[in-house]
Amino acid sequence: MSGSSIMEANSFSGAFAEGMDEDVQQLVERRQKVMGGAYRLFYREPVHLVRGRGARLWDAAGREYIDMYNNVASLGHCHPAVIEAVTAQMSQLNTHTRYLHETVVDYTERLLETFPAAIDRAMYMCTGSEANDLAIRVAQQYTGARGIIVTSEAYHGTSALTSGASPALGSGQPLAPEVRAVPAPDTYREGADAGARFARDVRAAAADLAAHGHGTAALLIDSILSSDGVLPGPRGMLGAAAAEVRAAGGIVIADEVQPGFGRTGDTFWGFERHALDPEIVTLGKPMGNGMPVSGLVARGDVLAAFSDDLPYFNTFGGNPVSMAAASAVLRVLQEERLMEHSARIGGQLLESLSTLADRHELVGDVRGAGLFIGFELVEDRTTKAPARTAALQVIEELRRRGVLTSVAGPYGNVLKLRPPLAFQESDIAPVVAALDDSLRVVEH
Fold first, then answer.
1. What pTM does this model have?
2. DSSP helix, strand, coil percent of the chain (3-state; round to 5)
3. In CATH, which of 3.90.1300.10, 2.60.40.2470, 3.90.1150.10, 2.30.30.240 is domain 47-77+338-443?
């Protein structure tokens, strides 16, 4: 995975093993012996977590941390409503999806109500990789083309199809011949032209796919551009690119694993901020607060081009226990108005973080939507040269101060601040103080 922007940045290498806690070192050695070399751990000294609640985590030594990274436990770690729903259903029945069960149908009806009316069908899997894999297959079947366009640091999964459309996995994982990667629109470095430039590059990618006999099946895009460095951009920024894809005969697949379910604050789905009007939307484990459940929702006519000819069976995709978790998550999101919470608390967090730019020259840009914020560090504010080394040092200093997060973007210099939605106003001050202290240490 040479050069992987999401696997290698902030990863344990063993170079700092000397002086590491003996119990942690032994567990690392045992893990490496039986689990192989493909896995990556965070931090120079890996964190051994044993308990979580809300936006807090505790390690084996009893040290408490604020989790600023984990959107998988979207409501918060060990949320009581999810625990209750899963426990109750597990005590009754868990089986595959070739039997009738009310929970999956009830949930699907409620889920589809959150989408535009044209999105009227749903299918279920266990992981986001499976959802994106199926989405690519559906798009190719519907359009008759093969080509997929993604952003240049995108991550969409680990299957054969999705890893070939995930440039963030690095040079050790080459793109598939029918995939083209386009630099994401970055308004910090490009200004107001970012969206138009992105659309022009998408048009050029579609033309290249056509020239090579692939045609264009879809633009597969995460609307918060998370792996590209958290690039929310202005509303509507991605609309022109979507138009270019459709002009080339393709469709839009919105990968909502990270920006979906109210996280971006002002809309329930991230694609709604950007006039994408997708034909297919994919969902991942945040829909079940970390339970193994994912989904694909689509326009009926698009999905029919696949499902009328090809049956699809995912043994435990949409099983009753996972759907009980998903149902609890959706209910809590709506009843507790967590989208509005994300907008309000995220706005306050963004404002507080932005004040750090007045005190630290390392801070180049602070941007975000709801509880999804990118905090970019630069060596020089004029040249905007990325401060990768400093960002990794800041991550380590934050860990020492009880705040967990990681980095994103092509240069590994953007702190990805994406806490569970249980993050509260009272959590803002300790996070900002820890970041303030960490920046001061690194700068001096």
1. 0.94
2. 40, 20, 40
3. 3.90.1150.10
